[in-house]
Structure of Pyroglutamyl-peptidase I:
Amino acid sequence: MKILVTGFEPFGQDTENASGAVVERLRGFEWDPGLEVVTSILPVTWSGSAPAFLRAIETHHPDAVLAVGEAGGRALVTPERRARNIGHGRIPDNDGAPRPAAPLDEGPEFLESRIDPASLVAAIRSVSVPAEVSDDAGAFLCNAVYRALLHETNLPGTFIHVPAVRSQGSATVGRETDPDAASSSSTILTIDQLTDAVAASVKAVAELLRPAV
């Protein structure tokens, strides 16, 4: 079984993105026999993120997809229940481009995850990382990528938000998922813990999709 895991490049003036850092660390993992994990880092641009995501799927032909992004107002790891049919860039992306609020496609208001988010929460908590299901992936590029997964492909897949952890200092961006939320001062998770959480999610997805024998 092959699972594609994606994260994002640094955004704005920050030199790190927690999702990208996690994906980089996953590249060094040793996975169980029969499980292959491939990765891709996506640009933080309206013109590039979803197309790059779909190209990664076309290149790797995965059996399932786990997309990861960061949410600066959250202190927990949050698997997302659904993708919204809206894109809104209230601040410019890495190309300097804003985006007025508008639908992303001609589909319904919401598309549901194809992987049970509660199962991922259980897997994440099993490695001692706090997690809860989120109902809302926001309207920024994380949601746009999630929406592309659910609208443009039939693959099993979902999206996970991780806190905007930095190896040094604090994030200056990352609140776009929850624009009304203050940066969480209670975030005490590390990149190692976030990596453990996503690795546990990958293994849970593989187990959920493994044919019964």
